[in-house]
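Message: I would value a second opinion on how I read folds in token form. Give me a protein, with the fold worked out from its sequence. Write it directly below this note and I will take it from there.
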Amino acid sequence: MTDWQGLIFDKDGTLFEFSATWEAWAQAFLLRLTDGDRAAAAIIGKDIGFDITIRKFSSDSVAIAGTPDEIGQALAPHFPDLSHSAMLEMLNEEATMTPQVEAIPLIPYLTSLRDAGLKLGVATNDSEAPALAHLGSASVVGLFDFIAGFDSGYGAKPAAGQLKAFCAQTGCDPARVAMVGDSTHDLMAGAAAGMRCIAVLTGVATRETLAPYADVVLPDIGHIPDWLNEN
């Protein structure tokens, strides 16, 4: 692992299981928006790619790789009297309250990576405040050298701004850093930043979808150290 300098992770579907976390969020948020009207929630859910009846996201859902801003825009036509800022506030508030399910036990895993000399970052298309709350609930904020949301001032994936900022702040050479994510947005950002790209299958996207954009597709982040040692 000596040739590697850093890893930058997506959050949802990578550090945390996507389905276990965000399916619960989508149902709670849609029912909140509609005052508990499940029929209305089902109709509105279609516009963000969520089936409230079976509590599943479609593979092309805006919630998988999109920002809260993009989710809010998709919902806006249903709520003409709700301002965009109010919608974002509600999205972030509900997200902050959503329990997280770790993909693997994060404290020992991240500690071992730091002990190996790696710089660690998080680049998420979620807002920064919920991201910090989620990482805080897992007691891992202090294990990261860099944490950025779409509203942290570096842009959002698939652009490379967050990843370039990580390298600028940590002194890492992008060619010696890997971007780890569960969506094509993550992997496209990694490529644009000049990084290697590691895909994981703890999100919604399939191996077939991710493989063309990745150097490797792994079951979860727990398999990364072995891959780093071999590459």
User: Anything to note?
Assistant: Strands lie at 6-9, 50-51, 56-57, 119-123, 146-148, 177-181, 196-200, 216-218.
